[in-house]
Amino acid sequence: MAELSTIARPYAEALFQAARNEGANLESWSGLLNEFASLAKLEDVREALTDPRLNDAQRVELFTGLVKSPVSATARNFIELLVGNDRVLVLPEIAEQFDLLKNQLEGTALAEITSAFALSDAQVQDLVAALEKKFGLKLKPAVTVDADLIGGVRVVVGDQVLDTSVRAQLVRMRDTLAA
């Protein structure tokens, strides 16, 4: 089976172009897609959308009925396209691809920061400022805490990883000693 990102990319690119051509707010589209993705991840929704007793029109009605945000005609057409092609369950990956395109256009990126301890707002701002200089992008931080790191931080920006955690240093030391 093809990778989900390979399946999702054309849908995300088409929706991104449609949103830009309409002059729509990309941030609102991103929010709507993330809401769609959250729904598509729910087990009950997944079961309902794959129920062979429902036709495509019923699946579209079911899915759009669960969405709390207003669904525009373009968004409804997009859902109809996904249902017709049996791709609704790929929505989480489509939302991720859409956000990557939006961030690329804006010159921003998501910085997934994992710290061994909780960081204050000031510490996060200082870290983001230093990372923005290093990566040359405007970063949007998403901070999580993972005590398994022992100390330090691990930062993921796109496909780049900066791991200064104590755990990573111990692993490198172990690998050096074992070699």
UniProtKB/TrEMBL annotation:
<keyword id="KW-0813">Transport</keyword>
<keyword id="KW-0472">Membrane</keyword>
<dbReference type="GO" id="GO:0046933">
    <property type="term" value="F:proton-transporting ATP synthase activity, rotational mechanism"/>
</dbReference>
<comment type="similarity">
    <text>Belongs to the ATPase delta chain family.</text>
</comment>
<dbReference type="GO" id="GO:0045259">
    <property type="term" value="C:proton-transporting ATP synthase complex"/>
</dbReference>
<dbReference type="InterPro" id="IPR026015">
    <property type="entry name" value="ATP_synth_OSCP/delta_N_sf"/>
</dbReference>
<dbReference type="GO" id="GO:0005886">
    <property type="term" value="C:plasma membrane"/>
</dbReference>
<keyword id="KW-0375">Hydrogen ion transport</keyword>
<comment type="function">
    <text>This protein is part of the stalk that links CF(0) to CF(1). It either transmits conformational changes from CF(0) to CF(1) or is implicated in proton conduction.</text>
</comment>
<dbReference type="Pfam" id="PF00213">
    <property type="entry name" value="OSCP"/>
</dbReference>
<keyword id="KW-1003">Cell membrane</keyword>
<keyword id="KW-0406">Ion transport</keyword>
<comment type="function">
    <text>F(1)F(0) ATP synthase produces ATP from ADP in the presence of a proton or sodium gradient. F-type ATPases consist of two structural domains, F(1) containing the extramembraneous catalytic core and F(0) containing the membrane proton channel, linked together by a central stalk and a peripheral stalk. During catalysis, ATP synthesis in the catalytic domain of F(1) is coupled via a rotary mechanism of the central stalk subunits to proton translocation.</text>
</comment>
<keyword id="KW-0066">ATP synthesis</keyword>
<protein>
    <recommendedName>
        <fullName>ATP synthase subunit delta</fullName>
    </recommendedName>
</protein>
<keyword id="KW-0139">CF(1)</keyword>
<dbReference type="InterPro" id="IPR000711">
    <property type="entry name" value="ATPase_OSCP/dsu"/>
</dbReference>
